[in-house]
Design brief:
two-stranded antiparallel sheet; mainly alpha
């Protein structure tokens, strides 16, 4: 018991650095502020680790869920013409609906249908989410499409963004080159260290550029609870048919993403642990976690592949490891929350560009070129489906992309003998988050599994 406790404690502590850093970044990307992201990074893993169907996992805000949450927040403030109270009520309503939909998908035992989503469609929608994140951050950096650019000198902001992105990748390589012990490198997560280094330098130089906002700021726990109560969706103005018709698709989109994110990750983890996830139990736990997070002004989330893989690589033994991820994230949030405002906004743009790269599947494209698949009909059809789903996700809507892509795939399979992409190039890359040179985890999974 003592041995597993220590293993779980250390694994949870290590992964919590990445969880808290990404939580803050995703909170800012969502438009709700760093506070909301860090809150989600603390609450979601505790609930899902205790009650979920995947025994060893790390859940929390993810890039796909955040991309849709950003659309929700923008829609809400545009819809209510700057009335912050009604906009916040509408956001809470959608997040609560999404949580309920996720719970219902577990209650009605829909988890088994994850096996029906083709690999080519999953690869495409993940690519689409990655592209959307890059577009969103580049718009913010350069002030494109009428979006206000980051305050301060653009050249300095650009330098910080790409320095941050580069350092996240360089730190593990430098530590390895310096032959730093693995036992030390495991506690040097590159995203967390990069944020500290760049923030220290920008503070020392007193750079006059935009800094991160926590979003809502609370002077006491009582004040926070008052805001939570005040933003409960009870105003009749948000329950018109027009607003509800807008709320339901957004909630369903978040539900679909939580479903795909969580259950596809669970398939990867199952292959590593030789266990079998209870998908419906997992969905119910994810739904409860997202409902509570939405109620408490956080942002939604799901199982996170890289964080879950890192948790296992760090020697997690029991459900306590995932709980510790949330507990340490919560402690870090309480202790260091106010210091977030020292970080320049450009740093988190760099972090989010990295998140977009993590989501984007590079392995199929590399295999396509490396193996000269362009001469094979089967591979070209697979590339078409990946490209179609990516394009529809970026230009139209994630739900439309996944549903239409899946329907077209099965029509093609029935009448034209279309084959799904196999998994011999599927990999989970985690070393750049972790800060040490992890062996790449090669996950051999069936046609319907993926990594993201």
């Amino acid at each position: 018991m003592k041995k597993t406790f220590i293993s779980d404690l250390l694994a949870g502590l290590t992964v919590s650095f990445a969880a808290l850093s990404l939580g803050a970044a995703f909170g800012i990307m969502s438009g709700r502020g760093a506070f909301a992201g860090m809150l989600g990074a603390a609450i979601i893993p505790i609930i899902t680790s205790l009650f979920g169907g995947t025994r060893l996992q790390a859940s929390g805000p993810t890039a796909p869920m955040t991309a849709v949450t950003a659309l929700l927040v923008a829609n809400a403030y545009d819809r209510f013409g700057g009335d912050k109270h009604l906009a916040d009520e509408f956001i809470t309503l959608v997040l609560l609906l999404a949580g309920v939909f996720i719970i219902l998908s577990g209650v009605f035992k829909l988890g088994k249908y994850i096996q029906l989503v083709p690999q080519v469609v999953v690869l495409g929608f993940m690519n689409g989410i990655g592209v959307l994140i890059w577009i969103d951050q580049l718009k913010k950096l350069f002030g494109l499409n009428g979006i206000k650019p980051l305050d301060g000198n653009m050249a300095i902001n650009i330098t910080i963004v790409f320095s941050t992105l580069g350092l996240i990748y360089l730190i593990p390589l430098i530590l390895k080159k310096m032959k730093v012990s693995t036992n030390i490198r495991r506690f040097v997560p590159s995203i967390f260290v990069t944020i500290i280094l760049v923030t220290t330098l920008s503070t020392f130089l007193q750079l006059n550029i935009e800094h991160v906002s926590l979003g809502e700021s609370y002077n006491s726990f009582r004040e926070y609870i008052k805001v939570v109560y005040f933003d409960l969706p009870v105003d009749s103005a948000i329950f018109t048919s027009e607003h509800l018709f807008s709320a339901f698709p957004l909630a369903l989109q978040l539900c679909l993403l939580a479903y795909l994110d969580s259950l596809l990750t669970s398939l990867v983890i199952d292959k590593m642990t030789k266990e079998k996830t209870k998908p419906n139990k997992e969905l119910i736990a994810q739904g409860i976690a997202n409902t509570l997070t939405g109620l408490l002004q956080g942002i939604p989330g799901a199982q996170a592949t890289i964080r879950s893989v890192l948790l296992l690589k760090e020697g997690a033994q029991t459900r306590l490891a995932g709980v510790f991820v949330g507990i340490f994230a919560l402690l870090g949030f309480i202790v260091f929350g106010k210091l977030i405002t020292l970080i320049t906004s450009a740093v988190f743009v760099g972090v989010l560009l990295k998140a977009g790269l993590d989501v984007f599947d590079r392995d199929f494209a590399i295999a396509y070129v490396k193996n000269k698949w362009m001469t094979e009909r089967k591979r070209n059809i697979q590339l078409f489906f990946v490209s179609y789903t990516t394009l529809i996700t970026v230009v139209f809507d994630l739900n439309v992309a996944v549903i239409s892509g899946t329907i077209f795939y099965y029509i093609g399979k029935k009448f034209f003998n279309v084959a799904d992409a196999e998994d011999d190039y599927s990999e989970v890359h985690g070393e750049e988050l972790h800060g040490q040179s992890l062996d790449t985890v090669n996950v051999k999974i069936n046609n319907n599994d993926t990594s993201h």
